[in-house]
């Protein structure tokens, strides 16, 4: 699809041209971050080459519409009611979210409740100039300088896993720390980002399976 065709099919009031990056169209379609966009009936550009996102950054905008990565932490797709509900849930669970962030020891910039997730329990988004896909592309360059996006761990408050986390915060915070690591690693795997310690992840899964 061309940018002209995309712009011609944009929803009334749509501010951004949304895009997603990945190794294939099928892989992109599996990303949890696509759920909200589909729910709103909006299209996205599929970027399957490492240089694609860098090219969009150079372009900046098309027909006064800025480009927006669906993994950004500010998609601006929520209704006022959804934003108010998100704020309420964030306030109600702020202590647990802060605990999860601290448990991850600086691996994420923040842990937040998410409105973009519908069926998935967790995903990663990014804050700042470097996206998750740009991080992977830059770090794939041999002998190049390594970078890391400012990662935000998003949790689906409507998923049963979130209820489990809330229960553990009240009853077993040591176990909650393990769940935080598992969810973070799960989010990395979904994004195709290498897991720092696959053996530790495997051991954690086995440990929880035998409890």
Detailed description of the structure:
- The chain is an alpha/beta fold.
- The chain has two domains: 3-69, Rossmann fold (3-Layer(aba) Sandwich); 80-209, Heat shock protein 90, C-terminal domain (Four Helix Bundle (Hemerythrin (Met), subunit A), Up-down Bundle), CATH 1.20.120.
- The chain has ten helices and seven strands.
- It has helices at 3-8, 25-29, 34-39, 52-59, 80-92, 94-103, 132-139, 160-171, 173-191, 198-209, and strands at residues 16-21, 45-47, 61-62, 65-69, 110-113, 122-127, 150-155.
- The strands form two sheets. A four-stranded mixed beta sheet has the order 2-1-4-3. It has a three-stranded mixed beta sheet with strand order 5-7-6.
- Strand 3 and strand 4 form a beta hairpin.
- Helix 6 crosses helix 9 and helix 8 (160-171) packs antiparallel against helix 9 (173-191).
- The longest helix has 19 residues, at 173-191.
- The protein is globular.
- The chain starts with a helix and ends with a helix.
- The mean pLDDT is 91.
